[in-house]
Amino acid sequence: xxSYRHTGKQEYLDAAKRVAHYFISNIPENGLIPIDFRxxxxxxxxxxxxxxxxxxxxxxxxxxxxxxxxxxYLGAALRLLHALSxxxxxxxxxxxxxxxxxxxxxxxxxxxxxxxxxxxxxLEALLKLIDNDLWVW
Length: 137
Description:
Largest sheet: none
């Protein structure tokens, strides 16, 4: 999406939409994203970071979509953010992180911990919703 924003090349927007449609079609009913859509059923690990990053991207795509598609992308982003804020955020000011159940790889030994860039993308997505996003890319 960033490539489209910087170049205006339609193929970048089209690629972002294809990825978004795949992601949206694989969002579980509860809106909480697994670490890998094709992972084994057990052990099951979540990746809140992926949900936050996807929400950010979906909001960005919505900015360049027609009215009907805008609703699809924003609706999916809001679903992800609501699931995160309702059940995967730790708002305790004594803790260093916000998002819980972040993972970086299904194959790694530890899972479902805080990852700082997950918090960043979660906050960036919220700021995008109020048109006050931090544009550093």
